[in-house]
């Protein structure tokens, strides 16, 4: 394995433009050239690599991806005045209204996954996420909220089951519901973008990675696409603990406490909230999931992170997730046997707990 992909990703220059098109024939390829681009969207650098196409086709595909990402980002922003923002404002008044059709399919999917995860993946807790200050792009100056405010939101108990959708008729039975799709939107976006590229451009070999998340089809010349799993404890962000070779159609998603956080009294306040306590989830440093469906992989990584080292096995079984790697806050690695068969460790874990079916 090589952590090359991860290194490329983390070394990516800060991008100020929405798209920095870096068409370049990958230097190391033998017979199959590949083309790469980096796009800044969803608060992260999205890298795309495509092989078995010519330069003109690659350019077309990159433009299509950029357009899709731009559109989806506006659709799913919870607090701006786009379609989800408007849906959220109407939810605050409770009652029935017509929701924009552009957000309904993702909200339906989010509700199904919330139910499957026993509401540990709970995108209805937008108000809690905002209370902790993670709705902003920059949060280094944040301070933790008052406990009383957290308890008030817990008491209101917003859940996706407070919402019913019939066609475009949207009923919100709990005014505390604010939908935050941050735990699932990247997965849904990658799934939709790849489906679109397959259908419209007959793309067969492409890898799209967003932060620590990846969806790939086909392969890279003779080799599979490879993703590194970041070492959550390394101060050097470029260090991978392990790598996974993606099979065609795999979605590999990681939720980590290192992605978005701030420090308060030397404690890391991260962005994945345990809906049972209202506080950042304890016990996990990162969770990686492989699943054919990127939306499911994204939601499951968030839910299993919240479940933590003592409850993840039960939840993974319930959600039908076969491939899981969880690094706990003592740096122990917990894996399913199926995942262990797919992972190559670069650094030996402190201890390894393998769950066999
Ligand atoms: P990342 O976005 O870093 O890949 P996740 O997929 O785990 O990580 O998504 C985390 C985001 O999901 C948070 O920034 C927040 O917007 C939202 N979120 C936080 N806690 C939860 C939760 N328990 N269930 C659903 N969404 C959550
Ligand atoms: Mg997620």
Structure in words:
- This protein is α+β, with helices and mostly antiparallel strands and 357 residues long.
- 32% of the residues lie in helices and 26% in strands.
- It has a ten-stranded mixed sheet.
- Strand 12 and strand 13 form a beta hairpin.
- Helix 2 runs antiparallel to helix 7, helix 4 runs parallel beside helix 8 and helix 7 crosses helix 8.
- The two termini are 27 Å apart.
- Bound molecules: adenosine-5'-diphosphate and magnesium ion.
- Small molecules bound in the structure, each named once: adenosine-5'-diphosphate, magnesium ion
Rg (C-alpha, Å)? 20 Å
Unreliable stretches (pLDDT < 50, length at least 5) are: 1-30
Largest sheet: 10 strands, mixed
Overall strand count: 18
List the total number of helices.
Answer: 9
Range of strand content: 25-35%
Structural class based on helices, strands and sheet pairing: alpha+beta
């Amino acid at each position: 394995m090589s952590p090359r992909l991860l290194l490329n990703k983390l070394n990516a220059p800060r991008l100020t433009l929405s798209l920095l098109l870096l068409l370049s024939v990958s230097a190391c390829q033998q017979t199959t050239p590949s083309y790469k681009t980096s796009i800044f969207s969803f608060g992260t650098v999205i890298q795309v690599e495509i092989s078995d196409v010519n330069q003109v086709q690659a350019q077309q595909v990159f433009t299509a991806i950029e357009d899709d990402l731009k559109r989806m980002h506006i659709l799913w922003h919870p607090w701006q005045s786009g379609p989800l923002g408007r849906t959220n404002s109407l939810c605050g008044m409770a009652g029935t209204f017509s929701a924009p059709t552009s957000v309904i399919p993702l909200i339906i999917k989010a509700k199904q996954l919330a139910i499957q995860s026993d509401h540990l993946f709970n995108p209805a807790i937008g108000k809690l996420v905002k209370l902790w200050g993670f709705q902003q792009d920059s949060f280094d100056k944040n301070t933790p909220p008052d406990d009383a405010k957290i308890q008030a939101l817990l008491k209101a108990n917003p859940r996706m089951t407070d919402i019913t959708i019939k066609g475009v008729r949207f009923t919100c039975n709990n005014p505390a519901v604010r939908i935050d799709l941050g735990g699932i939107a990247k997965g849904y976006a990658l799934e939709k973008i790849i489906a679109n590229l397959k259908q419209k451009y007959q793309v067969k070999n492409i890898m799209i990675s967003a932060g620590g998340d990846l969806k790939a089809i086909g392969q890279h010349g003779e080799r599979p696409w490879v993703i590194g799993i970041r070492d959550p404890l390394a101060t050097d962000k470029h260090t991978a603990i392990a790598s996974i070779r993606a099979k065609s159609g795999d979605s590999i998603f990681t939720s980590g406490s290192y992605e978005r956080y701030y420090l308060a009294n030397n404690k890391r306040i991260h962005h994945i909230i345990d809906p049972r306590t209202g506080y950042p989830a304890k016990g996990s440093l990162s969770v990686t999931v492989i699943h054919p469906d990127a939306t499911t992989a994204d939601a499951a990584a968030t839910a299993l992170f919240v479940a933590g080292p003592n409850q993840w096995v039960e939840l993974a079984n319930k959600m039908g997730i076969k491939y899981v790697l969880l690094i706990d806050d003592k740096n122990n690695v917990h894996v399913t046997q199926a995942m262990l068969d797919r992972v190559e460790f670069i650094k030996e874990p402190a201890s390894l707990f393998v769950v066999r079916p």
